[in-house]
Amino acid sequence: TNRVELPDTDESPDFSAGADAGLTVVEVTPETVQSILASMSRYQSYSRTITLQYSWTGGTGTMTAQVRADGGWSRCDTLLASGVTEHSIVGGERLWYWYDDDKQALEGEADQRSQDLLQYIPTYEDVLALDPGQITGTGYEEKDGARCIYVEVYREELGYLERYWISVSSGLLTAAETEKDGRVVYAMSSSQLVSPLAGGEDAFTLPEGRVLHRPGE
Question: pTM to 2 decimals?
Fold first, then answer.
């Protein structure tokens, strides 16, 4: 997979190019950003924390998700605004879903969008499928300490202005925002990224005790 070298510019002096061999210098524009993202790969083994904030007329809500991923499998434990924790595992084109007190998980089919949707974050496929005419801004930015590719999208039919920050080093979505009528109604951020996954021996175990995947195997 090609790696992206961040340019050394007056606007982003901390993004100076490294001395690593094999880096590919690319310019991020509305015409090239989708192909750049398509060429990137995500970390395959990691853990991280995702914080989600929602806002609506008269109220706000926050959810926190603990995510663990390994070898094409992912587990997400999400503390909902209601105080209930929901759990999900995705892998092998299947998904399992349950709540804290459940003794049995619901099982169904999964696709390439399921992992992100169960984490309540935008999917790469949404960005890659955009009409380039909807992309209103691109570039390299630092977000929450990570060097990122930035994409701004205006969805005229919904009146939404969406912003995405994708980490150059991990290939993961680091942050996202949705703005409506000048107000941020959705915000996603991530922290505590560790790769490879550590201490995840029981991560992919269903409530009835069945082990779906063992990290590193």
Answer: 0.85
